[in-house]
Amino acid sequence: MTPFDEASEAFMAWLSKSGAEISRKIQLQDLRNIQAGRGVVAVQNIEEDELLFRIPRPAILSVENSILSSEIPKSTFEHLGPWLSLILVMLYEYQNQTASNWAPYFNVLPTKFNTLMFWEADELEQLQASAVRNKIGKEEADAMFKNELVPVIKEFAEIFYSGDVHAQKRAEAMVEPHNLELMHKMGSLIMAYAFDVEPVNVQKDVDEEGYASEDEDEALPKGMVPLADMLNADADKNNARLFYESEYLSMKAVKPIMAGEEIFNDYGPLPRSDLLRRYGYITDNYAQYDVVEIPFDHITYAASGDSIPFYDEKIEYLDEHGLIETGYDISAGNPFTIQESISPELIAVIETLLLEEAEFERLKRKGKLPKPDQLSARGAMILHGFIQTQARQYSTSLDQDLSDIASVPLTGDIASKERRYAMAKLVRIGEKKILRNAEQALINMAQTKERSTGASKRPAEDDNYGAGKKQRAQ
Ligand SMILES: C[S@@+](CC[C@H](N)C(=O)[O-])C[C@H]1O[C@@H](n2cnc3c(N)ncnc32)[C@H](O)[C@@H]1O
């Protein structure tokens, strides 16, 4: 037996000993041949609603279950928040090695990651103008580790490294690069593996956001749920779901599964850029959720070259209504339509900026905004300009990228440069396709309006306000 299989076997044995109930119809398998690490596979036919496994709550690696939480004040964990608290507990359990209850679990968790946090600068460069590059947050995480986590480890060094005469020294060494890297690894594990774990008294089944969410549910406690996190994910082939029960978390089939089929969870409707950022891989069937972001900067830049009546007041008003964002999504959509694919907030922002003074004052008095489903011909032209501006931020064109289409290597090192370059290229191609679709949809809209009004202006670079006129610095 290979060490990889031995670790899987020891993990499954530990889990059973911890009180987990695991159907004999499933197996944890080595799927490295398809570059998917470990995964859970059906070895017999499974019916819809059938229980695949149930994990007792005490087996979850969480703040609540770690002995550390009984030794460090509750207020410290509250101050750290769910993410840093779980990182702290994971560091504690990890450095306790075989003394940790979760040692066999750590042995099946990855120590190398392909998520964007661990990409080299030249690899990230392949994403070109993708907004995902601004969401990686490596520096912010480093600062948080140094300013929030390390002081707690230092303060409680004697508990954290209990019995070690060098406890204080070890705590001080936590700011060293290899230890910050370890914190990033724990953070990445949480991002790709943890679930939002509802408190025991809340009986609620986990929806597609079962995997720990980042923004909306920042305050929810996180937990590493053994085996549940060994399921890979697939947007189309999703066939299982985790249900919360008072004593257990239960994974059940949500459709019949045939022997030999892999059991898949779902990460929700994530664009491939985010799939890469959070999970370090992409598959084609997430292309349906791709988005491209139009940065708010394009609006400020375009406005700076034009005199928009009441610009500052309008921005303030839009901000009061929560419409000022760092960027606005345009999503893939099939078929692509302006209504379905373009952020209604972006349309409302553009249409507000275009309002004549009297109309702006009138809407303001009523506390209203222009209707986001009514993009005017002028608004369409401006939007067209933003889209062209955004397309120019990428260092290659869609046609250049498509002339030599990338394919992600199916064998070899999962973290190879070649693989990362190929994944990045597919992400940027997806974004450029959306920009092209949006441009076309706006041209079609202008032509339709032209036919109905006899007007002759098309959305193009010739509009004064259009950002297309000015090339932004690359
Ligand atoms: C929750 S874990 C799933 C278990 C994981 N395969 C393992 O061996 O530990 C999530 C990670 O699995 C991998 N993964 C998930 N779904 C995948 C898929 N459909 N294809 C390839 N890799 C996948 C990614 O590396 C992701 O970060």
UniProtKB/TrEMBL annotation:
Residues 446-474 are annotated as: Disordered. SUPFAM superfamilies: RuBisCo LSMT C-terminal, substrate-binding domain, SET domain. One of its GO terms (biological process) is methylation. Keywords: Methyltransferase, S-adenosyl-L-methionine, Transferase. This is SET domain-containing protein. GO terms for molecular function: protein-lysine N-methyltransferase activity. The keyword Transferase applies.
